[in-house]
## 1
Amino acid sequence: MKIRKPLTLLVAVLMITSMFASSALAKEVYTVKPGDVLWKIAEQYDTTWEEIAEFNELSNPHLIYPEQKLEIPSKEQIVEEPVVEEPVVEEPVAEEPVVEEPVAEDPVVEEGKKITVLGTSDVHGRIYAYEYATDSPDADAGFAKLQTLIKQEKAKDPNAILLDCGDTVQDNSAELFNDLPVHPMVQAMNSIGYDLWTLGNHEFNFDKSFLDRNIDAFSNNVLAANIYKEDGTRYVEPYKIFEKDGVRIAVVGLLPPHIPRWEASAPEHFQGLTFTQPVEEAKKVVKELQGKYDILVGAFHIGPDGEYGSQGALEIAEAVPEFNVIFCGHAHSKFSDKEVNGTKLIEPGCYGWALAKAEITVGKYGNGYVVEDVTVENIETAEVEEDKDILNEFEFVHKKSVEDANIVVGQIEEDYVKNVDYITGDAKVTTMPTAQVEDTALMDLINEVQLFYSGADISSAAAFKNDMNLVKGEFKKKDVANIYKYTNTLIGVNITGENLKKYMEWSASYYNTYKEGDVTVSFNPDIRGFNYDMFAGVDYDIDISQEAGNRIKNLTFKGEPVKDDEIYKLTINNYRFGTLKNEGFATDEDVFYDSYELIQDAGRIRALIVKYIQEEKEGKAVPTVDNNWKIIGIDLENAYKDTVFEMIKSGELTIPTSEDGRTPNVKSINANDLIEEGKLEEIKTDEELPKAS
């Protein structure tokens, strides 16, 4: 259609006038909130997402960010396709080939456009539902059970993405197979059909060549955005983008940056690698991904909370709200109810307790898709049958592990811990673990072995399991794995008396500070039990009425006070040596003994315990305890003790555990509180009783 020149001029004048006029109009500015999408914002202002996008010159209307400022065009500011009333046109109006712009409506949600993501984490060497340390079934564990659920979910959605969040190849006798070209745990992930494997910190427990070999052996994508090589490139891929039914799903992998801390005694495990902070790296990766995805998923070997100054998944979601859902790991937590900035978070516990599932609903949005809804759930494995194909394929792993666990190495003459649970006396801890509130023959045995082989004066060790014990009868290899969970080696270091005291204070911070009326001893929920060490070769008291950092009292070595400037020979495991280095208590130059350097795998503390019983004790394990330490600063014979203990045994009182369930006994039972709550009757003293008439 042609328009007369006067009309063309009029249109131009009107357009220019409207541009100047718009600057004089009051602008309404909208600040983007977490979870906002452009079409929903447009609805609030009776406009369309196209108009807001064009007015703000958005290069990609699918990507808007919290705190971003958007100017909302008023009706007067919207310049539409010729909206000028045309006075006269040469052709009849009816013949005008007018193409009306469609009024933008809500995005059309395509029926059934759902994306499924499935996740596991911290399976720790478990294929069968079996715990080889105790040589017994474990009802909610293993890839075989997970595979049953995975098959069920993939029958519903064949396009489902399957990921694992790390700590996969370590624990539960998995080290028996480290020399195979492909570790069975990696082989199992390949057989099941995992799309992604995010590395965990325990993947670095062994020689780097072991990890390199198994990364190469994994059939699909290995992720960890925050690991860099010396040349500045990443060690493995930072993310993977999938396209499912036209929808682009980006999955980002992250892990804790503390591998150099945890593997400080074995730098060859991470040789040539550096690790960056997760928030920093998440921001960097999301920027790299801009415009390349419709759904953003985190596959993190990171728990909800951070540690050692690093950030947890909750902080990452707060700082980087572009994530739609984050699969967590590392903390062994079980949750599906956490949400930050519209980002859902889920963690499926450990060992195969559950299959984590996210179902993401998307709607058509211009040429792309926008996330409409995310639902998450943990599907538990306890009542699920194991997948027969997996059982058949990995029968050799189960058979060898059971045989190894049952090798007899000696005879246990008596139970090493009489009352594993301090209050109930049961073999399973439900209240307070005896091993962490008083000296036991079991901890003395581990320290005795460490002292013998290292030639040190002082030893320290932790109770890795609060219910560990040696029970009268045959002493088998599985019993050693039960009392010493990890494949640590032994280190001897020279340490000053001053640094020894600092180290002991660091350990004693495990206890909560005593409050008047406390009937039980309790533990700091922020400190794991494996970070509480008990010492042999010195005598000492722990005064829990004092604040952390001022608790070690009456510390003596061979009857003499420990001197700050004197050098003592201390033996610890390789993991704890990393702690001492990071805390500044010891350096590489202080090492005088390294069992792994001397005798390789035979220098693992598990192997040394077996060797000690067989060769030094003639195969007879006899419990002895020297009671060289005790807790003070609490009235352990409180007048209410018996009554309170009975209330605990009956279930009337419950001792709290940490939120993630990993630390028991995180708050002391206090008699004064119970009296105030009316749950305990106050005991009257003689002075308070009425006198007889």
## 2
Amino acid sequence: MITSEEIKRRLWDGANELRGSMDASRYKDYMLGLMFYKFLSDKTLEEFKISSGLGQITESELVEEYVKAKVEYGEELDRMLQMALGYYVAPEYLYQSWLKDINSGNFEVQKVTDSLNNFERTIAVSSDSNDFKGLFSSSTLDLTDTALGSNLNERSKNIKSLILLFADLNMVALQKGDVLGDAYEYLIGQFAMESGKKAGEFYTPHQVSEVMAQIVAKMSDVKTIYDPTVGSGSLLLTVKKHLGKEVQKDLSYYGQEKNTATYNLTRMNLLLHGVRPEKMTIKNGDTLSHDWPEDPERPNEGVQFDAVVMNPPYSVKGWNKAGLKISDPRFEIAGALPPDSKGDFAFLLHGLFHLGQNGTMAIVLPHGVLFRGGAEGEIRERLLEKNRIDSIIGLPSSLFTNTGIPVAVMILKKSRKIDEPVLIIDASRSFIKVGKQNVLQEKDIAKIVDTYVERREEKGYSCLAKRKDILENQYNMNIPRYVEAIDEEIPQDVDAHLLGGIPQQNIEDLKVLQSTVPDILDQSLKGIRNGYVELLKPVEEISKEILSDARIVAKSKEIESKAKSYVYKYWDILRVVDNNSNLNQLMDDMLVEIKTFLAEFKYIDVYNGYQIVAEIWKNSLVHDTEIIALSDFYTAGRTREPNMVTKGSGDKKREEQDGWVGIIVPNELIAKRLYSDELERIEKKKMRILGIENELSDLVEAAKVEDSDEADALGGILNEAGEAFENKSVKAELKKASKGTVEYKLLKNVEELFTDKSTLSKAVKADEKALKEAAQERILTLTNEEIDILMYEKWFGNTVETIVGLAELPLNAELNTLQLLHDRYVETLSVLDEESRDLEAAFVALKSELVVRS
């Protein structure tokens, strides 16, 4: 039973192993191209099986039947398949025929080339030919490329390995659950991360796509969607994911891509995600040079779409190679032509031109478009005057693999109310660091989208810029002009430094403590002069009083009660998911509900709760619910699979089974909960080993002390580095030493420690092996009650406690501020002066004691 996560991991590991030194941005074309050809072959066989009325049959038998039918029915069979699919793969050119040749030792690279060429010929006469034409052109899949191998044998070996990577995957079955599409999209993203700057040609980071897609999906009635710089198609598909199932069925996709290899990638990606050929119109062309798509009946309007999304290349130089004029209908609204040195507004205006009257457009742009002058300033002013800019969302820097600059998402509409403010969101500080990249967490995306949908103002984060504000800034939309970052640093108080005490104003600024437990805070302070106070007790003691206060305890209990109800509700739902369950909707319901119930409590950041649930899905539920839906909760709980590990390296690298693992119940959790006594005994032995190692370390250090008994007895058995004893030397020296001497006793002690450590280490190894085997076998006989206990801990182990802890976060933050203020002002300038004088006096006294000897 293979899940989407396991497929992703296996394919990416295979890609890393096989591509060698080939550039990731180039290798992706081979890997994803052959993966897609496997899909076409599997679809052909599936359609033949259905139309022929064949029942349960193995793949090899199905291929044989297809070969026979081809001989008997010839072109009639071809036409039938072509009508049903819009294409077909002839029997002799199936992916399965390559596998057969590999297994028989008759494989030749030319067979792959011939197969790809034949597919091109078979679709040439089809009405769907534009959807498949050129997918496997030599410019995309050049199997003679020396990067695949310096000679024919090397290339043949590498291509065979790549073909075998997909051999056991049923692409049709995987497509039905969107598993195949997800795996394809995952590989595109992974290749993007490996490709560095070249990734900008084909990939928009998932988190940026999510921000744009969620906004577009929520704000428009989407039946048609257009991406003028479509790349791999990820933006289109992310929007699709956030639309209802019924809407998805009739959604029409349009896109244009200049790079031919990337254009091919787009079409493959959409088809693998189940987009029907008649619902996708993708063009290989330059978006700016020639307007597309056009409506012949209304040449000055262009085709209009319900949603437009795009991540164009930034600040393209020389974009106007076609010599376009202001008279081009796309640029008329702007009243000026974007400068030839920067194509940002050219892309924006193209997308806006094709936006329907009630549609929503989202575009990623560099910050320069918000403040640059000249023609760009004129265009920005005109767009604001025409009321087209709905929102500007500033994102963190280093989100993209191909640039470290910060970017902004601009939302545009044509149906805004007169004088409606422009919503400015500054999310530039909302991220975590993952390696060299900055990453938006799920909670960051949710906050951006909620703020946009609710058009919410929040100090330091978002602002509704009214017309007068924009005029005062002369149409400069640079985000810091509208959203002032909150300075977290508390200003220094000179009087407090000179005379001591915490400024009363700083105490007043502790809003959560003042609102929640003002009496405890007040009783913990003493006024020392007008406007200044000092602590009557340590902050640690104040913290204990506050956190044990009846009001705080009551609030925590109320949160705990609601958190338990929330967890139990979804615990019952998650255990019974099946093939009819909409897992994406279930995840969304959980995420929305956690925000709703936490919003009832003042001073809790609901997005921290959102992240807790998002992490549970990411770490466990995405994988486990997929398996449960294919089987059932308790059957899955008692199912195990081989634990495959990689051993050896180079030519000797191989996959071997190392025991078994539960497909949803972790072996480690079984050991922890059902074999606690055994674990405790193992832990005691490990602690004894650690104690022996410490004893040996102490003796090593003692052996380094000159003229000591340890140095005399043990100095000669230290290794060259002088960091440990050598076991062989211990035995040799012990034979020479006289019994009863100090030397003999010390050597004997070291020998016994070595023996005890060795015995214990072997015992631990044997015990761990026995426990591992016991846990693996225990999976098969777990009771329903045991599965409930283990899986509840896996999914929701400390969730309730973590959610309850959210109430303490703002209190602890202000208590830390109180500690900081105390530490800052506890030592006044006079105290520091006194310490300085004492040190100076001590130095003078020490100096007078110095004696100069000749």
## 3
Amino acid sequence: MPSPLTWAGFGQWTFLAAAFAFLLLTGWRWERRRSDRTGSARAEITAFTLTAAWALIIAGTGHETLVGQLFETLRSLAWLSVAFVLFSRDGRHTSVAPIRPVLAALVFVEMLQLLLLMMNLRYAGNAVAQGMIFQISVLFRLLVATGALVLVHNLYAGAMAQQRVALRWTCMALATIWGYDLNLYTIAYLSHSLPVELEALRGVAQIAVAGLLTIGAVRGRSALRFSPSRAVAFQSLSLLVIGAYMILMVGAAQSLAWLGGNASQLAQLGFVFVTTVLVVAILPSGRVRGWLKVMLAKHFFQHRYDYRAEWLRFTRTIGRASTNAPSLHERVVQAVADITDSAAGLLLTQAESGEMVLAARWQWPTADVPAEAMSPENVAFFEKHGFIVDLDELRAGVDHQGERHAVPQWLVEEHSAWALVPLLHYDRLVGLVVLGRPPVARKLDWEDFDLLRVVGMQLASYLAEHAGQSALLEASRFDEFNRRMAFVMHDIKNLASQLSLLSRNAEKHAENPAFRADMLITLRNSADKLNALLARLSRYGGSGTERVEDIDASEVIRTVAERYNAPGLMQVHVTHDAPCRVLASRELLEQVVLHLVQNAIDASPDGMAVFLQANVDGLYGSIEVIDTGCGMSAEFIRNRLFKPFVSTKPGGFGIGAFEAREMVRSMRGKLEVESREGLGSRFTVRLPLAAAQGLIESIQGDSDSPGKKVA
């Protein structure tokens, strides 16, 4: 028969195991406290923690110490609070009148244990008093166990049928706690002492309680499929490692003690020194801990993503091509956002000058994106590294590969932005997806980065293929247009020749001087216009520039406004017309402004005004055409506005905006567009100032010289 010492040793190990089990339950329950809808998280965490502390104290000091009895009282009060919370789930704590008085009575009886502890301290040397206090304490614990078992019975028996499934295992755990206490303290009351065997087996009962609670939690959540979160798994693994380390240390120390003598002391000192050096050198290293975490997650835990389901959803999103489906650019953003459960996103693509501009929005109308979303220098960083940026880490000061200088400031200040995913196609940056913050924020890990990187490359190939198809279609349309224009140019050339001949004959043969003079002016103007048209058409597709002169942009906008403003009807308003001398062709500039004003009028409701203004901006003068019409989307501006042969007007040729931009470029200027759907549009024509011509030419000469970097 085992000796009391053997039972005591067995009890220590069982209580240590019980403490470990309840610590695991505490960590697991803490991780899921936010998703708990029953309101029992706080009570359960408190009960698990106090039970773990009580088991550790019992393992170290035994049942009869004052500290052990104090923590047993705290543990019992915590489990009573759990029972009350379980009653309150369906409101029975208010509808069943005896529950509150019974709970209050049990709490009062259990609190009397504190008074008995103080009496134990007061009569520490009196054996008779100690025996009497022990019997009273055991009697009180019997009362609490009996009343608690009655509560557990009422809790399960009074629950509705669908609630019993959720309560079954928890009620079994509570019944195990107080049922074992009832038997233990009944024997203790009769024998005037706690039996050593039952004290030791009490730890086994606590382990069983932890198992029942675990089964109940698993059944209530995932139909017996135990799938803890990654954080809990790592915490549990850490506790297992610590426990294994403690067992190893105890075993090693015991083995060394068998050596005896000085050899034992030297071996113990050496073992302690080596293990201490290893722990101090390895554990504080963040790189080592991070590497271990990633390796363990990759090889020991189930993946977060169901890759088959993700691929099917990705394919369905990208493959949608119905008439009501969003554009490809919007579907690209949605495909990436679906992976991380992001609520919104943006797509930035490369413009002709190398900078990144907004190409599409997906459920993010409030994001304020500048006209140049990212400079060409920062684009080079993402092409080189292909780095997925966690913007929360960036805001916290983490800088892995120098991405702090590559991410534009507007993205850092946009706190709804969560991550930046580059789309690379053969080491060329095709686009950048800005992901909005998901409803449940979390930290991106290695699995997110791997999946986003693969999806980004796949989406980049789709975008590159789409751009290639658009370029081929545009080239074929240009070819057709050039064939048609060859006939048009031939006819116009013949007409110009005839008009020129008519003009020369009229100079020789017209008899009426007044008629001759009027005819000459008319014919000469017509011929000049036709020749100018021929010259402009012949330059399309070339790299030539228009002959420019010093003109006043304010006079141009006033002239255009007069053409549209009839007496009593003001359609076009000039809001700012200070002198603004620019280098331009007056005829071309008037034609550009006329086209922009006409488009603004067409896009505005009847009676809405269009505004013109001329300003000086640094080395450039600007003409702004502003309307409050229907506006344009980022996708339309990016993919359709300046594309030839694409028109939203019935019977339109679709070359007006393209022609206006080419005219501005031929005068060494640029045409910029800002627009919001439902708010209106702003077209800005920027041309070099006449006074800054020398400075601009010197800057361009320096940038074109050898050894200089062209911006």
## 4
Amino acid sequence: MNAKESIVNGKAALGIEFGSTRIKAVLVDENCKALAVGSYQWENQLVDGVWTYSLEAIHTGLQACYKALAEKVQGQYGVPLKKLASLGISAMMHGYMAFNEKDELLVPFRTWRNTMTEEAAAKLTQEFQVNVPERYSISHLYQAVLRKEPHVKDIAFFTTLAGYIHWQLTGEKVLGVGDASGMFPIDCSTKDYDKEKLAKFDKLVEEYHFPWTLKDILPKSLTAGEKAGVLTEAGAKMLDPTGTLEAGVPMCPPEGDAGTGMVATNSVKVRTGNVSAGTSVFAMIVMEKALKNLHTEIDLVTTPAGDLVAMVHCNNCTSDINTWVNLFEEFAEAAGMKIDRGQLFDLLFKKALEGEPDCGGLLSYNYFSGESITGFDEGRPLFVRHANDKVSLGNFMRVHLFTALGALKNGLDILLKEEKVPVDKIYGHGGFFTVPGAGQKIMAAAMNTPVSVMDTASEGGAWGIAVLAQYLVTGAGKDLADYLDQEVFAGQTGTTLEPDAADVKGFDDFLVRYNKGLAIERAAVESI
């Protein structure tokens, strides 16, 4: 069946993912080959000290992204997008969206980027004896309890961004287990919330006499391949106000960007891992067994199938790089030169490969927001050097690529060197890897392990959730890892780069300087 027939006959699956700065939609055929892509740019807002997106922005972004995709389909294939085989929603994990019995949002959406939950996260980590990071939904809920926020008693349901959108489209209050694991710890033997820890939380808040138990207000956890409802008439109208899209589309469990990243890189098998590097950066490795010790730098989540994953997550990655690229772009325009933005990224990233292995002594921090791994509630991007350090373009760009992985490297050293978690394959995806070979080479140096980038990596999590949507209707009961190997990635190619010894040593030398210089970053936070 060709692409046009696949679309007309309703055999194509659609995935939509809400990233930090872009909402992206990918339509795929029965073999998960991308047929059309649409996107919409958006930005979070800092309102009263809270990073948030308004409900209006969420709904507007969803419709605009879908409209862009539908127009691409009409333009490329000459047919309207009326029928879908299946549909999936993905979004940034964690955060806090709490609703009352009237389905009203009680407080503005608190995204993963907020780090005001330090007290709650520390207390829950101690109580559960597993790491509960500041960005997790349960940390936000418990911090609201500790602050005695009046809305808490009125909560009837709380969820993530993906869970909210899925709920609006289907009426179902469910969540994929991978996204659910970023709300509350999961018991991988049951693929559901850990009952013992649920009871411990209820005991913790017993004195407040809330009219709910935690289990009552959490979304139901589902694994990949399970039915998660259908697109309702109201949902279809919300997604496509023109009324062209037909309702009744089966929907897969809504997932977080970590889970879709694993799918997009074929990294759901034990001893495989992936690094997703964009606005934030996280590395995930599917584990054979639990970690020996509790580490506050390591998060425990799951694959969309419910298998245990160790994650190192950092809030900051490419935002500061984008700022510097913007500056170079402005300079070029002021000099009367018009350089394509993609070519500019290509030029600057490749210059980083010409820099000295340790960046010539330069140091920078990309902390747009706090970074829990290194102990920061707030951040201040900065660049610092000795007077006699060599400020070449190569060294300058190299240090900004290095520092994008600085906090991540600290967490990975615990996972790989201290816990000795075995890894056979690492796959990279996200904006950091857009320029062929550049980000990949730097990542191989940071991890001291081969890093592969698949040809499909540029499609990212939106393609990953489209694959999960197609898996729902064409998986035929196959294990998710087998489905990916045999149906999706069979015959696909990519590139693998081995770590260069000089680069590895250079990154290690840089990391010593990075960790010692954290005092400078702390002074910047306190002084500016």
